[in-house]
Amino acid sequence: MFEAQMQDGKIFKAIIEAIKDLVQDCNLDCSEEEVAIQSMDSAHVSLVAVRLSAGGFSNYRCDRPNSLGINTANMSKILKMLGKDDSITFKAEDESPDNLTMLFEGGKTTIADFDLKLMDIEAEQLGIPDTPYQCTVQMNADEFQRIVRDLQVLGDTCTISCGKEGIRFSVTGNIGNGNILIRSNDEQNEKDRVTITMDEPVELNFALRYLNFFTKATPLSSSVIISMSPDVPVVVEYPIEDFGHIKFYLAPKIEED
């Protein structure tokens, strides 16, 4: 039996909204320790990894590991019926369940239950190497979303460079060029603090289209952590308070000479 109650249901709704444009079908991998999602997008350019610790749920039971195959668009349709203050309780039987039951509870009066048909999805778990990154930047998530949105007007490729000045986002396009530099600071308000840890300068090119998809996770966190090293995928991480994180991995674009 799998049963888990999330007191703040809109967190899970925000996770599905953040990944549904990248990932169509994926498994909710449930174990005693956590609920996890790991899936590549259809073009195999980016990877999504979600981790929700069992300790973040108000009630959690998982008798045996289970993979629950969901279609994110269908899950999103059901979650649109969730009230803004509702809790969600997930329930699934142990042996090859056909449905995932979701109970939405708002206050003492309203309980709605929905069954989402599950799918049999064969997905290979990728071993994500524990890479030591040359440059790690923690900054305001809203600011990162604004930068990506603004630069997309100019071009398709964003150059992210981390150096002594700070972290720079640059775009060269048909109508012109753009550069936005973010310097580190020691703001007391953690939300506005910019922390840069750098062993050596890094400069990589990324598709703005994918960075824009990643910023759909902004409602989940006040800050975003960007980790880069030469020739390896960038990691864009949104910490989820009390639960864990959602991480996006994106391979750098190789510029042809």
From TrEMBL:
Molecular functions (GO terms): DNA binding; DNA polymerase processivity factor activity
UniProt GO cellular component terms: PCNA complex
Residue ranges constituting the Proliferating cell nuclear antigen PCNA N-terminal domain according to the UniProt record: 1-124
Subcellular location: Nucleus
Any GO BP annotation: leading strand elongation
InterPro entries with a match to the protein in the record: DNA_clamp_sf, Pr_cel_nuc_antig, Pr_cel_nuc_antig_C, Pr_cel_nuc_antig_N
Swiss-Prot/TrEMBL keywords: DNA replication, DNA-binding, Nucleus
Coiled coil region boundaries: none
Domain spans labelled Proliferating cell nuclear antigen PCNA C-terminal: 127-253
Family, similarity comment: Belongs to the PCNA family.
UniProt function note: This protein is an auxiliary protein of DNA polymerase delta and is involved in the control of eukaryotic DNA replication by increasing the polymerase's processivity during elongation of the leading strand.
Name this protein carries in UniProt: DNA sliding clamp PCNA
Species, as recorded: Pseudo-nitzschia multistriata
